[in-house]
Amino acid sequence: MNWSWQTFQNRLRITGELVAQTGVRVGMSAETAMPTATDLPVIKDANGKPFIPGSSLRGAVRAYVERIVRTFEGDAHPSKGEARGKGACIPTDKDRWCLESREGLSEEEIYDCSCRVCRALGSPWLASRVRFTDLALIQRDGQSRIEPELRDAVAIDREKESVANKYDFEALPAGVRFQFELIAENLSEGEELGLVLLGVRALEQGEILIGGFKGRGLGHVKLEGTQYEWIDRANLKDYLITGQAGVLDETRRKAALEALFNALTEGR
Ligand SMILES: [Zn+2]
Fold it and tell me: Which DSSP string do the residues of 3-65 spell out, in sequence order?
């Protein structure tokens, strides 16, 4: 069991470009809220430049990974507090969390009781070891400034079954690119690493949608030019001296995914 937050085990840094295949809208407010007459802007940084919050992408990746884990291992729910690294709880439904409270539990015990997804991606009681950096819009030199486009939508009044109001919303056009960075620390080199790589693979294959208005065909993205920097105890010294990280090559990535699926199908 690799239990040690205090000491350095390994660090994975994945970078690439997230490319919009369709329009993408990551908005300021909850997409479910009834829009008012004003336009719904996309989220922007202090300089007015659109970006995708890391938390937004992280939520989408997590939901994908949970779905795969649940397909193989089911909910963590039937064995509350006994998940022991198996299954996936449902973060939006408190009754189906792998662990209801942290009361009386040490950090080691919390880790032990948590489901597979919480162990790697965190929970209210467990710090995540995977961080998604906010994704900055890539603006190439000489390229005209990328601005959101306005699209129109119609809100339906459900009670009267009539059109309540028309409104505009902002979306970024297909083809825009965002800088992607994920940093993971001290994952177990088998199953936990495999879980993170599973999410990254899905991003590469365009299986994860982000933002709002997915029902209108928005939110398709693909990760391109993925690079995997890897530092562990074997190359830590080199890294500290030269600043040069190693590479998590395809063989090791495949081995981690194999370890995950072996664990997911164990005892079936
Ligand atoms: Zn959980």
Answer: --SSS--EEEEEEEEEEESS-B--BSS-TTSPP-SS-BPBPB-TTS-BEE-HHHHHHHHHHHH
Output 267 or 246, whichever has higher pLDDT: 246
Residue 180 · residue 17 · CB < 8 Å: yes
Burial class (CB in 10 A: 0-12, 13-18, 19+), 152: exposed
Domain ranges of the chain: 10-53+134-265
Tokens 């390229």 correspond to what residue?
Answer: 143
Q: What pTM value is reported for the model?
A: 0.88
HSE at residue 68, side-chain half, CA atoms within 13 A, is 22
197 CA distance to ligand 1 middle (Å): 18
As a whole-number percent, the residues of the chain with pLDDT over 70 amount to 88
Neighbours of ion ligand 1 (CB under 5 A): 89, 98, 115, 118
What CATH architecture applies to the domain 10-53+134-265? 2-Layer Sandwich (3.30)
Phi, psi of 262 (to 5 degrees): -60, -45
Residue 40 Cα to ligand 1 midpoint, Å, equals 33
